[in-house]
Amino acid sequence: MLITLFFSLLVSSVVATDEDSALPRLTDTKAAEAFIDSAEVVVIGFVEGEESHGYQELVAAAKRVDSVPVAICTEKAVWADYSLSSDTITLFRKADNHQENLVLAKAKKVEADGLVNFITINEVRYVTEYDQVTAVGLFNSEVKTHLLLFANRGSKEYTELKERLGALAPEFTGKFLFVLINGAVKSNIRSLGYFGLKSQDLPRVGLYDSESDMKWLLPEGQISTERVREFCQSFLQGELKEVKQAGAEAKTEL
């Protein structure tokens, strides 16, 4: 009885119904804020109801993208808190404090496949693995500097380093996007070559500033939290501009 009462109080502003196909319904701003804070990336469908354009497609997309929590909000008073005035599917992410809006009235066509692509492309996390899909969201972000971890998936350091940098990334929210580049994937050979690296040289850490198209490597040695933190701070303080860049050739994308 006590457990049931506690749970009901905890979710008093978040309601899930059969009609919503188990998508939680956010009934006030406090519930929306809690939902947004619950994960690195979340999606909220700000729609008038289940008859709204795009509603059923969002439900279908949510079932296919289980790595991203999805909810709906029909309360227009809440919409205003996020500067929305019409039906909109919005992705919120912590890595760069970004709100990506898909205004349904402006969309020529709304399909589940398209919504899956919208979510996947914009699913930028504290540590985002680089590929052709995530590259779009990474380079469209207002944060133009990337801290890069080059590591071979399956190596003994891979998971440990990913977790270590994932714990560090929130310290640099809005300043850097932390990106993992798997050196064991052939399609990433070009990215490694841009930094003068080969798969056998990994793991290494680099930094790429897309605005200046400049790049640097953390000197070889232990990839500790403190060394990476100092590397990031050196860039922010302008010290890296006096350091020789990594690699030889110039290019504008990874």
From TrEMBL:
InterPro entries, sorted: Thioredoxin-like_sf
Keyword annotations from UniProtKB, A to Z: Signal
Homology family: Belongs to the protein disulfide isomerase family.
Source lineage: Eukaryota, Metazoa, Chordata, Craniata, Vertebrata
Source domain of life: Eukaryota
One GO molecular-function entry: protein disulfide isomerase activity
Keyword Cell division assigned: no
Species the sequence originates in: Cottoperca gobio (Frogmouth)
Residues spanning the signal sequence: 1-16
One BP annotation, GO: protein folding
A Gene Ontology term for the protein's cellular component: endoplasmic reticulum
Matching Pfam families: Thioredoxin_6 (PF13848)
Name of the featured protein: Endoplasmic reticulum resident protein 27
